[in-house]
Amino acid sequence: MDDKYYSEQQIEGIDIVSDCYSTQQNTQENKPLYIVEGKEVTEEIIAEIKPDDVESINVLKDISATKKYGEKGKNGVIEIYLKKK
């Protein structure tokens, strides 16, 4: 993945705010759980989703993530819902 390319792309409806003091690398230990249309998917599947196909994105953190997804949600959950065709 080309981090520079993706960091410079703008996606309508998404704002990324950084404190400019720290960064966190997503290692295997701290990657979020990805859910598309209720099904667990890999980062590779996420990369194939076209922004125009996305209806909404929910980000669950902390107890809301573990309450809904158990241990798999301990690093957060990104739920993606696609537009109906």
Give a verbal description of the structure.
The model has no long low-confidence stretch (mean pLDDT 82). Strands 2-1-4-3 form a four-stranded mixed beta sheet. The chain is α+β, with helices and mostly antiparallel strands and 85 residues long. It contains three helices and four strands, in the order H-E-E-H-E-H-E. The chain starts with a helix and ends with a strand. The protein has a domain at 30-85. This is TonB-dependent receptor plug domain-containing protein.
In short:
This protein is α+β, with helices and mostly antiparallel strands and 85 residues long. The chain is 24% helix and 24% strand.
Show the helix and strand layout.
Blueprint: H1 3-8, E1 33-36, E2 39-41, H2 43-48, E3 54-60, H3 62-69, E4 77-82
Parallel strand pairs: 1-4
Antiparallel strand pairs: 1-2, 3-4
The SSE string, one letter per element, is HEEHEHE
Principal-axis shape equals globular
Structural class: alpha+beta
Annotation field: number of helices: 3
End-to-end CA span: 29 Å
Give the amount of beta strand, in percent.
Answer: 15-25%
Helix content: 10-25%
Radius of gyration: 14 Å
Largest pleated sheet: 4 strands, mixed
Spatially, the strands of the biggest sheet line up as 2-1-4-3
The residue ranges in which pLDDT falls below 50 over 5 or more consecutive positions are none
Mean of residue pLDDT values: 82
Number of strands: 4
